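Lab meeting, item 3. Inverse folding demo.
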Protein backbone atom coordinates (compact mmCIF):
# COMPACT_ATOMS: atom_id res chain seq x y z
CA UNK A 1 0.00 0.00 0.00
CA UNK A 2 1.31 3.45 -0.97
CA UNK A 3 2.19 5.61 2.02
CA UNK A 4 1.39 9.32 1.81
CA UNK A 5 2.37 12.21 4.04
CA UNK A 6 1.05 15.77 4.19
CA UNK A 7 3.95 18.15 3.48
CA UNK A 8 4.52 21.26 5.56
CA UNK A 9 3.05 24.50 4.27
CA UNK A 10 6.51 25.93 3.59
CA UNK A 11 7.30 23.18 1.07
CA UNK A 12 7.29 24.12 -2.61
CA UNK A 13 3.83 24.82 -4.02
CA UNK A 14 2.42 24.34 -7.48
CA UNK A 15 -0.09 27.00 -6.54
CA UNK A 16 -2.84 28.13 -4.20
CA UNK A 17 -6.60 27.49 -4.22
CA UNK A 18 -9.14 30.11 -3.12
CA UNK A 19 -12.95 30.46 -3.35
CA UNK A 20 -14.92 33.60 -4.16
CA UNK A 21 -17.20 34.99 -1.39
CA UNK A 22 -20.88 35.38 -2.33
CA UNK A 23 -22.85 34.24 0.73
CA UNK A 24 -25.05 37.21 1.58
CA UNK A 25 -26.43 35.72 4.81
CA UNK A 26 -22.87 35.54 6.20
CA UNK A 27 -21.30 38.73 4.90
CA UNK A 28 -24.29 41.07 4.93
CA UNK A 29 -23.24 44.72 4.71
CA UNK A 30 -19.53 43.88 4.25
CA UNK A 31 -19.99 41.67 1.16
CA UNK A 32 -18.55 44.23 -1.26
CA UNK A 33 -15.66 44.96 1.12
CA UNK A 34 -14.82 41.29 1.63
CA UNK A 35 -14.68 40.72 -2.12
CA UNK A 36 -12.06 43.46 -2.34
CA UNK A 37 -10.12 41.84 0.51
CA UNK A 38 -10.24 38.38 -1.10
CA UNK A 39 -9.01 39.90 -4.34
CA UNK A 40 -6.19 41.69 -2.50
CA UNK A 41 -5.16 38.44 -0.82
CA UNK A 42 -5.23 36.63 -4.17
CA UNK A 43 -3.05 39.29 -5.80
CA UNK A 44 -0.61 39.27 -2.87
CA UNK A 45 -0.21 35.48 -3.11
CA UNK A 46 0.00 35.63 -6.92
CA UNK A 47 3.19 37.64 -6.52
CA UNK A 48 4.73 34.42 -5.24
CA UNK A 49 2.79 31.56 -6.87
CA UNK A 50 -0.21 30.99 -9.19
CA UNK A 51 -3.67 31.28 -7.64
CA UNK A 52 -6.78 29.44 -8.80
CA UNK A 53 -9.92 31.25 -7.66
CA UNK A 54 -13.06 29.09 -7.70
CA UNK A 55 -16.24 31.11 -8.14
CA UNK A 56 -19.84 29.88 -7.97
CA UNK A 57 -21.48 29.60 -11.39
CA UNK A 58 -22.31 33.08 -12.66
CA UNK A 59 -19.71 34.88 -10.51
CA UNK A 60 -16.61 34.14 -12.56
CA UNK A 61 -16.63 37.45 -14.45
CA UNK A 62 -16.90 39.40 -11.21
CA UNK A 63 -13.99 37.52 -9.67
CA UNK A 64 -11.84 38.04 -12.77
CA UNK A 65 -12.59 41.76 -12.83
CA UNK A 66 -11.58 42.26 -9.19
CA UNK A 67 -8.63 39.84 -9.04
CA UNK A 68 -6.96 40.90 -12.26
CA UNK A 69 -3.77 39.09 -13.18
CA UNK A 70 -1.93 39.39 -9.90
CA UNK A 71 1.17 41.35 -9.02
CA UNK A 72 4.44 40.22 -10.53
CA UNK A 73 7.10 41.87 -8.40
CA UNK A 74 6.61 40.39 -4.94
CA UNK A 75 8.67 37.26 -4.60
CA UNK A 76 9.78 36.18 -8.02
CA UNK A 77 6.86 33.77 -8.42
CA UNK A 78 4.96 32.98 -11.60
CA UNK A 79 2.04 35.17 -10.57
CA UNK A 80 -1.44 35.29 -11.96
CA UNK A 81 -4.98 34.57 -10.77
CA UNK A 82 -7.00 32.06 -12.79
CA UNK A 83 -10.76 31.92 -12.19
CA UNK A 84 -12.87 28.81 -12.71
CA UNK A 85 -16.50 28.12 -11.84
CA UNK A 86 -17.71 25.23 -9.67
CA UNK A 87 -20.70 24.89 -7.30
CA UNK A 88 -19.97 26.43 -3.88
CA UNK A 89 -21.83 27.31 -0.70
CA UNK A 90 -19.10 29.35 0.99
CA UNK A 91 -15.54 30.56 0.53
CA UNK A 92 -13.30 28.95 3.17
CA UNK A 93 -11.03 26.62 1.22
CA UNK A 94 -8.71 25.88 4.13
CA UNK A 95 -11.61 23.88 5.50
CA UNK A 96 -13.55 22.54 2.53
CA UNK A 97 -10.84 21.97 -0.10
CA UNK A 98 -8.79 18.75 -0.14
CA UNK A 99 -5.69 18.29 1.99
CA UNK A 100 -2.88 17.31 -0.35
CA UNK A 101 -0.38 14.56 0.43
CA UNK A 102 2.72 13.20 -1.29
CA UNK A 103 4.12 9.68 -1.41
CA UNK A 104 7.78 8.74 -1.14
CA UNK A 105 8.28 9.25 -4.88
CA UNK A 106 6.72 12.71 -4.78
CA UNK A 107 3.42 11.68 -6.35
CA UNK A 108 0.44 13.73 -5.20
CA UNK A 109 -3.02 12.77 -3.94
CA UNK A 110 -5.78 14.64 -2.13
CA UNK A 111 -7.53 13.56 1.05
CA UNK A 112 -11.25 14.26 0.84
CA UNK A 113 -12.47 14.67 4.42
CA UNK A 114 -16.15 15.35 5.09
CA UNK A 115 -17.31 18.90 5.78
CA UNK A 116 -20.37 19.94 7.83
CA UNK A 117 -19.97 23.74 8.04
CA UNK A 118 -18.21 23.76 11.43
CA UNK A 119 -20.84 21.72 13.20
CA UNK A 120 -23.79 22.60 10.95
CA UNK A 121 -23.59 26.33 11.72
CA UNK A 122 -24.52 27.33 8.15
CA UNK A 123 -26.94 25.89 5.61
CA UNK A 124 -26.74 24.69 2.96
CA UNK A 125 -23.29 23.10 2.99
CA UNK A 126 -23.75 20.13 0.64
CA UNK A 127 -21.87 21.82 -2.23
CA UNK A 128 -18.93 22.56 0.05
CA UNK A 129 -18.97 18.94 1.22
CA UNK A 130 -18.60 17.90 -2.44
CA UNK A 131 -16.16 20.58 -3.62
CA UNK A 132 -13.06 18.66 -2.53
CA UNK A 133 -13.85 15.79 -4.90
CA UNK A 134 -14.70 18.19 -7.74
CA UNK A 135 -11.42 20.04 -7.29
CA UNK A 136 -9.44 16.81 -7.35
CA UNK A 137 -11.22 15.78 -10.53
CA UNK A 138 -10.52 19.20 -12.09
CA UNK A 139 -6.84 18.98 -11.12
CA UNK A 140 -6.48 15.36 -12.20
CA UNK A 141 -5.33 14.34 -8.71
CA UNK A 142 -6.14 10.97 -7.12
CA UNK A 143 -8.74 11.12 -4.35
CA UNK A 144 -8.31 9.47 -0.94
CA UNK A 145 -11.71 9.44 0.82
CA UNK A 146 -12.25 9.78 4.55
CA UNK A 147 -15.52 9.54 6.45
CA UNK A 148 -14.21 11.82 9.21
CA UNK A 149 -15.24 15.47 9.39
CA UNK A 150 -12.11 17.61 9.43
CA UNK A 151 -11.29 21.18 8.47
CA UNK A 152 -7.77 22.02 7.38
CA UNK A 153 -7.69 24.97 9.78
CA UNK A 154 -7.94 22.53 12.67
CA UNK A 155 -4.42 21.16 12.10
CA UNK A 156 -0.83 22.25 11.47
CA UNK A 157 1.88 19.79 10.38
CA UNK A 158 5.65 19.89 10.18
CA UNK A 159 5.93 17.51 7.22
CA UNK A 160 8.07 15.18 9.34
CA UNK A 161 5.35 13.31 11.18
CA UNK A 162 4.06 15.82 13.75
CA UNK A 163 0.57 17.32 13.82
CA UNK A 164 -0.79 19.89 16.29
CA UNK A 165 -4.50 20.40 16.91
CA UNK A 166 -6.83 21.57 19.67
CA UNK A 167 -9.10 19.53 21.89
CA UNK A 168 -11.58 22.38 21.78
CA UNK A 169 -12.21 21.75 18.08
CA UNK A 170 -11.45 18.14 17.19
CA UNK A 171 -13.16 16.68 20.24
CA UNK A 172 -16.24 18.88 19.88
CA UNK A 173 -19.36 16.69 19.62
CA UNK A 174 -20.66 18.63 16.61
CA UNK A 175 -17.98 17.11 14.34
CA UNK A 176 -17.49 13.37 14.90
CA UNK A 177 -19.64 12.30 17.87
CA UNK A 178 -19.03 8.62 17.13
CA UNK A 179 -15.24 8.95 17.24
CA UNK A 180 -13.19 9.21 20.42
CA UNK A 181 -9.72 10.76 20.65
CA UNK A 182 -7.93 7.51 19.78
CA UNK A 183 -10.02 6.95 16.65
CA UNK A 184 -9.49 10.53 15.51
CA UNK A 185 -5.74 10.16 15.99
CA UNK A 186 -5.74 6.90 14.05
CA UNK A 187 -7.54 8.51 11.11
CA UNK A 188 -5.16 11.48 11.07
CA UNK A 189 -2.20 9.12 11.09
CA UNK A 190 -3.67 6.92 8.37
CA UNK A 191 -4.71 9.68 5.96
CA UNK A 192 -2.06 12.35 6.57
CA UNK A 193 0.94 10.17 7.37
CA UNK A 194 1.63 11.67 10.78
CA UNK A 195 3.06 9.62 13.63
CA UNK A 196 2.49 11.99 16.55
CA UNK A 197 -0.50 14.19 17.41
CA UNK A 198 -0.01 17.02 19.91
CA UNK A 199 -3.27 18.09 21.54
CA UNK A 200 -3.48 21.67 22.79
CA UNK A 201 -6.36 22.28 25.19
CA UNK A 202 -7.56 25.57 23.71
CA UNK A 203 -8.40 27.46 20.59
CA UNK A 204 -9.40 31.09 20.77
CA UNK A 205 -12.19 31.87 23.22
CA UNK A 206 -13.76 34.28 20.73
CA UNK A 207 -13.47 31.73 17.91
CA UNK A 208 -17.02 30.45 18.20
CA UNK A 209 -17.33 30.02 14.43
CA UNK A 210 -14.76 27.21 14.11
CA UNK A 211 -14.81 26.04 17.75
CA UNK A 212 -11.14 26.86 18.18
CA UNK A 213 -9.12 26.08 15.06
CA UNK A 214 -5.41 25.76 15.65
CA UNK A 215 -4.58 28.20 12.83
CA UNK A 216 -5.59 31.05 15.12
CA UNK A 217 -3.36 29.68 17.89
CA UNK A 218 -0.09 28.38 16.47
CA UNK A 219 1.66 27.19 13.33
CA UNK A 220 4.75 25.18 12.52
CA UNK A 221 7.30 27.50 10.92
CA UNK A 222 10.02 24.87 10.44
CA UNK A 223 10.76 21.39 11.77
CA UNK A 224 11.00 21.83 15.53
CA UNK A 225 9.79 25.45 15.47
CA UNK A 226 6.32 26.72 16.34
CA UNK A 227 4.96 30.26 16.16
CA UNK A 228 2.34 30.81 18.86
CA UNK A 229 -0.10 33.58 19.71
CA UNK A 230 0.62 34.78 23.24
CA UNK A 231 -1.28 38.00 23.98
CA UNK A 232 0.66 40.20 26.39
CA UNK A 233 -2.42 42.00 27.74
CA UNK A 234 -3.68 40.25 30.91
CA UNK A 235 -7.19 41.41 30.05
CA UNK A 236 -7.16 39.59 26.71
CA UNK A 237 -9.67 36.69 26.79
CA UNK A 238 -6.97 34.25 25.71
CA UNK A 239 -4.20 35.45 28.02
CA UNK A 240 -4.34 32.39 30.32
CA UNK A 241 -5.56 29.96 27.66
CA UNK A 242 -2.63 30.57 25.31
CA UNK A 243 -0.21 30.20 28.19
CA UNK A 244 -1.73 26.81 28.96
CA UNK A 245 -1.16 25.89 25.31
CA UNK A 246 2.43 27.08 25.53
CA UNK A 247 3.01 24.88 28.57
CA UNK A 248 1.90 21.84 26.57
CA UNK A 249 4.28 22.72 23.74
CA UNK A 250 7.14 23.27 26.18
CA UNK A 251 6.60 19.83 27.69
CA UNK A 252 6.37 17.89 24.43
CA UNK A 253 8.68 16.71 21.69
CA UNK A 254 7.94 16.30 18.01
CA UNK A 255 7.74 13.01 16.09
CA UNK A 256 11.54 12.93 15.82
CA UNK A 257 12.12 13.57 19.52
CA UNK A 258 13.09 17.24 19.25
CA UNK A 259 12.12 19.83 21.82
CA UNK A 260 10.15 22.62 20.22
CA UNK A 261 11.52 26.13 19.77
CA UNK A 262 8.65 28.55 20.45
CA UNK A 263 8.38 31.97 18.81
CA UNK A 264 5.81 34.21 20.49
CA UNK A 265 3.58 36.76 18.77
CA UNK A 266 2.55 38.94 21.74
CA UNK A 267 0.45 41.35 19.68
CA UNK A 268 -3.22 41.04 18.89
CA UNK A 269 -5.43 43.39 16.89
CA UNK A 270 -8.97 44.57 17.52
CA UNK A 271 -10.76 46.85 15.10
CA UNK A 272 -14.27 48.09 14.34
CA UNK A 273 -16.32 47.03 11.34
CA UNK A 274 -20.07 46.87 10.61
CA UNK A 275 -20.91 48.54 13.94
CA UNK A 276 -19.02 45.94 15.95
CA UNK A 277 -15.54 44.95 17.13
CA UNK A 278 -13.63 42.03 15.63
CA UNK A 279 -10.26 40.45 16.34
CA UNK A 280 -7.73 39.95 13.56
CA UNK A 281 -5.46 36.97 14.22
CA UNK A 282 -1.94 37.55 12.95
CA UNK A 283 -1.33 33.81 13.23
CA UNK A 284 -3.85 33.18 10.45
CA UNK A 285 -1.27 33.72 7.68
CA UNK A 286 -0.44 31.83 4.49
CA UNK A 287 3.08 30.64 3.66
CA UNK A 288 3.69 30.95 -0.09
CA UNK A 289 6.72 30.23 -2.26
CA UNK A 290 9.18 32.81 -0.98
CA UNK A 291 6.65 34.76 1.03
CA UNK A 292 4.23 34.96 3.95
CA UNK A 293 0.90 36.79 3.52
CA UNK A 294 -0.39 38.00 6.88
CA UNK A 295 -3.78 39.49 7.81
CA UNK A 296 -3.49 42.95 9.34
CA UNK A 297 -5.94 45.45 10.82
CA UNK A 298 -4.38 48.82 10.05
CA UNK A 299 -3.29 49.40 13.66
CA UNK A 300 0.16 50.10 15.17
CA UNK A 301 0.53 46.50 16.39
CA UNK A 302 0.59 45.28 12.79
CA UNK A 303 4.23 46.19 12.20
CA UNK A 304 5.39 44.52 15.40
CA UNK A 305 3.59 41.31 14.51
CA UNK A 306 4.94 41.31 10.95
CA UNK A 307 8.46 41.71 12.32
CA UNK A 308 8.08 38.71 14.64
CA UNK A 309 6.67 36.56 11.84
CA UNK A 310 9.58 37.61 9.60
CA UNK A 311 12.03 36.22 12.15
CA UNK A 312 10.23 32.87 11.97
CA UNK A 313 10.53 32.71 8.17
CA UNK A 314 14.00 34.00 7.24
CA UNK A 315 14.47 34.47 3.52
CA UNK A 316 10.75 35.02 2.85
CA UNK A 317 9.11 38.34 2.11
CA UNK A 318 6.39 39.09 4.69
CA UNK A 319 3.41 41.00 3.29
CA UNK A 320 0.50 42.36 5.32
CA UNK A 321 -2.97 42.49 3.75
CA UNK A 322 -5.91 44.27 5.38
CA UNK A 323 -8.43 41.61 6.42
CA UNK A 324 -11.08 43.23 8.61
CA UNK A 325 -14.06 41.98 6.61
CA UNK A 326 -12.57 38.48 6.42
CA UNK A 327 -12.22 38.54 10.20
CA UNK A 328 -15.84 39.71 10.46
CA UNK A 329 -16.79 36.46 8.70
CA UNK A 330 -14.81 34.44 11.20
CA UNK A 331 -11.37 33.89 9.70
CA UNK A 332 -8.18 35.18 8.18
CA UNK A 333 -5.83 34.69 5.23
CA UNK A 334 -5.07 31.09 6.15
CA UNK A 335 -8.77 30.25 6.35
CA UNK A 336 -9.42 31.28 2.75
CA UNK A 337 -6.44 29.56 1.11
CA UNK A 338 -5.24 26.02 0.45
CA UNK A 339 -1.81 25.17 -0.90
CA UNK A 340 -1.28 22.65 -3.70
CA UNK A 341 2.17 21.12 -3.14
CA UNK A 342 4.41 20.69 -6.14
CA UNK A 343 4.99 17.19 -7.46
CA UNK A 344 8.58 16.19 -6.93
CA UNK A 345 10.37 14.77 -9.94
CA UNK A 346 13.42 12.54 -10.01
CA UNK A 347 16.75 14.06 -10.91
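The presenter then showed the designed sequence:
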Amino acid sequence: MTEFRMPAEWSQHEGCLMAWPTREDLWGSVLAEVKEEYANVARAIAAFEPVTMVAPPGFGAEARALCGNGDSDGGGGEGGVTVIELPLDDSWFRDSAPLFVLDGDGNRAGVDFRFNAWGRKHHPFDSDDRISGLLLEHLGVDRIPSGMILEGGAITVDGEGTLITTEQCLLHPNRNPGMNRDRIEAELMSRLGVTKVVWLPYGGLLDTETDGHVDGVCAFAAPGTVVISLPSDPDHPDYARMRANRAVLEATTDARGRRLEIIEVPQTAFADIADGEIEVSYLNYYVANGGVVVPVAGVPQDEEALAVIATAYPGRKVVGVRALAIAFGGGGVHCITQQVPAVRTAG
